Amino acid sequence: MDVQGFRWVRWRVWLCHIGSVLSLGLLLVLFRWRPRLGVLARCNSCPLAFANILLLRDSFGQQYVVEVLTEELEEGSLQLLCILNGFQVPLLHYYLFEGLRYVWMARKGAFCRAYLKCLRQTYFNFHTLHPPLAASSSVYGTNLIDVPVKSFMRLLIEEVLNPFYVFQVFSIALWLTDSYYYYAACIVIISLISICVSLYEIRKQSNTIRSMAQQITNVTVRRSSGEEDSLSSVELVPGDCVLIPQEGLLLPCDAALLAGECMVNESMLTGESVPVMKTPLPAAGGRYNPETQRRHTLFCGTQCIQAKGGRPGRGGAIAVVTSTGFFTAKGDLVSSILYPQPINFRFYQDAIKFLLFLGGVALCGTVYSIVILSRTNTTWWELVIRALDIVTIVVPPALPAAITTGTIYAQSRLKREGVFCISPPRINISGKVSLFCFDKTGTLTEEGLDVWGVMEGSGAGFSELVPDPRLLPQGPMLSAMACCHSVALLGGQPLGDPLELKMIESTGWELEEPAGDDKTLDSEFGGHRVLAVMRPPACPLQSESVAVALVQRFPFSSSLQRMSVVTVNPEGQSSLAFIKGAPEMVASLCLRESVPAQFSNTLRTFASDGFRVLALGYKTLYGQTDLSTIERGEVERDMQFLGLLVMKNLVKPESAEVITTLRLAHLRTVMVTGDNVLTAVNVARTCGMLGSNERVIFVHATPQTAQSLPSLRFHLGEGGTEDTATPSSIDMYTQGLYQGVINYHLAINGKSFSALCDHFPEYLPKVLMRGTVYARMAPEQKTQLVTELQKLNYRVGMCGDGANDCGALRAADVGVSLSEAEASVASPFTSKSDNISCVPLLIREGRCSLVTSFSLFKYMALYSLIQFSSVLILYTEKTNLGDLQFLFFDMVLVTLLAIVMGKGGPSTELHPQRPPASLLALPVLASLTLHTLLLILGQVSALLITTSQDWFVPLNSTMSGAANLPNLEDTSVFDLSGYQYIIMAVVVTKGYPYKRPLYYNVVFVCVLLVLFALMSWLVLAPVPFLRKLLKLYYIPDMNFKILLVALAALNFVFCFLLEMLIDRGMLNCLRLLRGRRQSKKQYKRLDVLLSDSPSWPPLDQPLVPPQCTVIGLS
């Protein structure tokens, strides 16, 4: 963020005050719309250290003005700031922006976030509560996610100062001056209703977010002296030591767990419905980071279900506060709701540009009206009023509101289907999605797993597959399956990861946990602090098995791809450490001589068949080891390989159907998973991401080491290595590949993806273009993948179900979280469905909403142009539309049609072509231009036909404007333009292939028929009362009136045919004349390049970075 410092200049401030008074407040309105102008007008630039006003500019170019605040420091805060700055500072200088506090750091010469020092602490500092952590709220602020709920008066002022309402006020004043009292009064009433509804919704939403975000509770804090104080959570600051009760707590801050274990429900933040086990932060290690240490971090807003083992004799757990207020994970998510990033979507950008274009049209109309009216006896005041009136007609103030109607209807339909949206503008963006990423486990496949069998292994090789773990002999393999988990008991019921629950269930062992402060289990197992006990079943097969106690637990980490536990037997004898995780990772931590020689082939066989495979290992810990302080690094090394646990993960029945639907619609599908690459490839084939006749090329990249240069290889084979296919088959495949006969997909794992990004960035776009399977991806790599795909101009969707996908869901253009929660702040969309069937539904609704927004935009633009044409034609004839005539057109015809036009639902199928998103594209501009010409031609024809009649009576030329109503010129233009408003609503309402046909929108059809009947009644047989009310001229000639209706019908036929021809590609001939142009989207250009590249990818040819090649040759 760019920060510029300024100081107030008193004489400039007074000058601006005088200017505001003289301009009747318009100068202040200008300063509100353009904050930079206000700062430059009243301030002088100065260094940040001396500034009292700051001008902020974010990465999106938006500018904000904030005031620098000062505060006297208390003793503790003074010491902290002295440490941060390097010298003592009596006053704290800071500013608040989007809820965050930025403190002036003289040492850095910049304003920095107040929490950074805390997050740079080491694990040791946390465990010893190092003095720099202790501080008052003077530096960090209060621990409150304070969502501002503005008063109705302030909201009213801010709403009225919106450019839309400022334009409305200007228009109303103009209409009142021109004696359009009824119309002005009606617009005032509607505007007031609109403002009241808007204020109510804004305040209601603010109160809802405030109640969700603001959380105040009493907590117990342990001081450095050992005393315990009860205080409000608002008073918490980083460094406070919080005691978490045994029954749990709704966490009011982010905290690092120091002692004990906590079972936490994080569904509000991540959408993950399975509770997560949190374990203490290691006593020794590197610097603390909440993202990499998620398993040791308790996040604000999550529900701690139970805490245990942290306070001997009293139960519960101990944690140290790391972040408060908006600096917490919950605060960050709430901030993203309150202050969303501007959406980079062409439709919204083009809408603003088109309004400027209409402003240009209004300027031309203003000039024309001045020229025409100046030739008559019109006064200069009336000339100004008439000219300005053109602007209010051409630029429809209701346009921005009208184009959101389709989105509102789509959001309502999605909610009925169980899909909740917290960012409505994303609905239109979902209609332009060109690539969708899917997590595997729990998204494409079932959440639960069934144990297929266990295969014990050692250096001598693998034994036979044992289908039932209960049949295993008593030994470390059975103990490892029973003990290596993070399952806990809640109300006597086991709670934890579904995979681990299945694994324990398959062994038959039972879980037991200490009851409160009961030391019975500790005594049974040699005085060790027992976390849980696993007891074997009372059956003959396991009669020799003994109970095992878990005394130390290192939870599973996506980045580490493993977990481990330390166990003891009764009386504290035979201490063992067990490890469970990704087979490749576990094997790398085991002694080489204990890993079977057939490990890779066996793993490849199971993974290729779609099985989920975990490896287990163990080692004996000798008596001199202190089990209570043993570190993870010491446990997870020199292990003995035990074998493989093979689990069957079934693909959800809906997955294949949805993937097929998306591929038929030419939408790329990509799998992003933390599982084995071969298992992922098998699931991709099963669900249809990979066709039966399509082959997989594996990408293998290695980073630079002391002994070797970075390398990149592409190799063929279902198994992922070159020895899975014969040389002749590779040659045949290579020939087919380079001739473009065979389709292929790339598969890559997380390590190779990281090396590819670091050392082969020139190959990354090509791999992304053909990559379908991304395996063993860490959460941050999933986010990076989404970002890299967006750099290729893909509109990326992401569908996932857990915390590992949270970053990617938020980074994607359209993130869909499969969660039971009604709304999760983890992503813009939350689906209550447990499968991906919501994805095509969301895309169909997005396309329907986008097409509806296009239709409404075109209709509102054409409505303005129809009225613009009518007024200019009547100005030429020295007359104008009447007050109630304007009101009839705007309120009865246009508003009703615009409201119901968007009610049509989406098509039942996904079309291969996506709808356009640019309002400034040739078809849209050509459609509006040609329609306008046809509409003007229709109105002029009606006027000429009228003037050519024998009974025609010219209007009173001594009067002008609405004063000489009724007259025949106005009535003929009124009659035809009334039909034009109706027929254009039919013409621009698009159906197939993105929406259901027009006749499915029953309400719209009924309104059309009623309005057509009403208009025909006014034209053919108006009752005297309505005729006088609308100031229409009585025309007795029925043949003439039928001729006007026929002219309107002809106008409709021509406009309908024109719109249909434009939709069918009538303007493609113009594209042929200008020649074929390259697509602006990078992924489309890359696709053409790869299709024309006969030698890519180079199979089984080691590649090195270009710079390494140059160095090697030199």
Automatic annotation (TrEMBL):
P5B-type ATPase N-terminal domain sequence ranges: 1-76
Under Gene3D superfamilies, the record lists: Calcium-transporting ATPase, cytoplasmic domain N, Calcium-transporting ATPase, cytoplasmic transduction domain A, Calcium-transporting ATPase, transmembrane domain, HAD superfamily/HAD-like
Instruction: List the GO biological process terms.
Output: autophagosome-lysosome fusion; intracellular calcium ion homeostasis; regulation of autophagosome size; regulation of mitochondrion organization
Membrane disposition: Multi-pass membrane protein
Q: What GO molecular function terms would the record report?
A: ATP binding; ATP hydrolysis activity; ATPase-coupled monoatomic cation transmembrane transporter activity; metal ion binding; P-type ion transporter activity; polyamine transmembrane transporter activity
State the Pfam families in the record: Cation_ATPase, E1-E2_ATPase, P5-ATPase
Locate the P-type ATPase A domain: which residues? 217-336
Q: A cellular component term (GO) from this record?
A: late endosome membrane
Q: Where are the transmembrane segments?
A: 12-30, 182-202, 354-373, 887-905, 917-937, 998-1020, 1040-1062
Subcellular localization is given as:
Membrane
Swiss-Prot/TrEMBL keywords: ATP-binding, Magnesium, Membrane, Metal-binding, Nucleotide-binding, Translocase, Transmembrane, Transmembrane helix
NCBIfam families xref list? ATPase_P-type, P-ATPase-V
What family is this?
A: Belongs to the cation transport ATPase (P-type) (TC 3.A.3) family. Type V subfamily.
The name on file for this protein is Cation-transporting ATPase
Per the UniProt record, the source organism is: Oncorhynchus tshawytscha (Chinook salmon)
Name the gene that codes for it: ATP13A2
